[in-house]
Amino acid sequence: MTTPIYDFVKAYAEKNTVRGHMPGHKGKTAENTLSAVFPYDITEIKGADALFEADGIIAESEKNASELFGTYATFYSAGGSTLCIQAMLAVCAKQGEKIICARNSHKALHSACILLGLSPVWIYPEFEDGSAVSGKITPESVKRLLEENTDAACVYITSPDYLGAVSDVKAIAEISHSFGKPLIVDNAHGAHFAFLEENIHPIALGADMCCDSAHKTLPVLTGGAYLHTASEKYAEKVKGAMSLFGSSSPSYLILQSLDLCNKYLAENFRGELSETINRIEKLKSEIKDVYTVEESEPLKLTIYALPCGLTGRELADRLRESDIEPEYADETHVMLMFSPQNSESDFERVKNALLTVKMPRICLEPPHFEILPLKKAMEMREAFFSEKETVRTDDALGRICARTETICPPCVPAVACGELFDKNTIKILKMYSISEVNVVK
Ligand SMILES: Cc1ncc(COP(=O)(O)O)c(C=O)c1O
Q1: pTM
Q2: Residue 21 domain-assigned (yes or no)
Q3: Atom of ligand 1 nearest to the CA of 85
Q4: CA spacing 20 to 30 A to 347: which of 19, 73, 75, 364?
């Protein structure tokens, strides 16, 4: 597998060229831990191609990625899945149109709806034990909403979601297509899905477009992501839409890491991924008598902490005492993400730490709340750009939300712009320690 971006930049860095171009560091910095990368941080000089009008080394590298993922076309993003989500929606829906969206979606979806003036109709997943952020979307609920909203422009789901819940993308794609609607999947957490023994990548299962945050599960620098398309129809429009929102100075460090990742995916990844998944399965069986492990996509370990007599945050703090930093913890859950870059000793340390945690083992009561559809008082964009004020969360009852209120991670909003705060939502926000909210004046 070729690595054209990496090769070009490496050759350039090794020549003693006078850099009469951006960036201002000219490939140099004072001696520090980042010094080694500065020579490789370049801009669109001659031969380096241009991300949003790629026809040279970037196009060649994207074609390599497309072959590896089995897509019609794959485009790189140096602005994460966030940029891909904006672009996918921009090519599928017009201002004012409805889109059918999963409620366990990331804030990036809300931002895209505000930017593009879209009107989401929410599908509520079957939320997991005491979680207000994660769950599966059922094909039946998608069908019902498509029957009720025949004018919707597309269906948008998030699978896997932040805690690892995986929906039946194949069935949802079939239903969406039977109504003549494209399916977009936020696969930010599932770049590795194309390389599992059974390929369960959204494009293989029938999605029309999806985004993968390469940086979340593959050895790619933060910000590196893919936008994949299944057909020519959207591929032609995607670059233009990406350039609408993306910086005209994408990081060549990120692009090189995406380029190098192709070689890794082609050579070693499948075997290493399968070994890592076996190792995670082993870890799960080693801790199963002590912990309740949620069903999730294979690279995540999601523990429901309450039966140990600890909140998710308390369990995370216990792990930090052993120098283990989880990806996420909240009132009920703690979640760790692994990849083939974790060593055998990492797994041993996690196992030992988990098995030596002192815990009361008196099951804590799960928080009591229901996830109920909220009343919409305004379109998202209108609410976001309205005059607003900040109030205590306790005082927000009946007010219109003017900012998507969420904590990051997981960045899954409990209330969307334009919706009315109800008692239940206030309870959820307080559970996530959100003490102030923005409301329309
Ligand atoms: C489900 C989901 N979608 C989208 C995003 C945004 O991805 P990125 O950080 O690559 O922009 C995230 C980020 O955490 C996410 O968890």
Answers
A1: 0.96
A2: no
A3: 4
A4: 364
Sign for the CA dihedral angle at 106, 108, 111, 115 comes to negative
Residue 15: inside a domain, yes or no?
no
**Other beta carbons within 10 Å of 48:** 19
Residue located via tokens 């308390």:
314
Residue 82 CB less than 6 A away from ligand 1? yes
pLDDT tens-digit readout, 142-186? 999 999 999 999 999 999 999 899 999 999 999 999 999 999 999
**What tens digit of pLDDT does each residue of 60-100 get?**
999 999 999 999 999 999 999 999 999 999 999 999 999 99
What is the separation, in whole angstroms, between the first and last Cα of the chain? 57
Distance, CA 24 to ligand 1 centroid (Å)?
Answer: 30
In a domain, 319, yes or no: yes
CB 248 within 8 A of CB 88: no
Ligand 1 centroid to residue 50 C-alpha, Å: 24
| Residue 353 CB-half CA count within 13 A | 18
**Torsions phi, psi for 338 (to 5 deg):** -115, 165
- Domain residue limits at 336: 270-356
| C-alpha 374 to ligand 1 mean position (Å) | 24
Specify the residue with its C-alpha closest to ligand 1, atom 9.
Answer: 80
Determine whether 415 is exposed, middle or buried from the number of CB atoms within 10 Å of its CB (0-12, 13-18, 19+).
Answer: buried
Element (H or E) spanning 233, and its range? helix 232-245
Helix (H, G, I), strand (E, B) or coil at 190: coil
For the chain, the domain total comes to 3
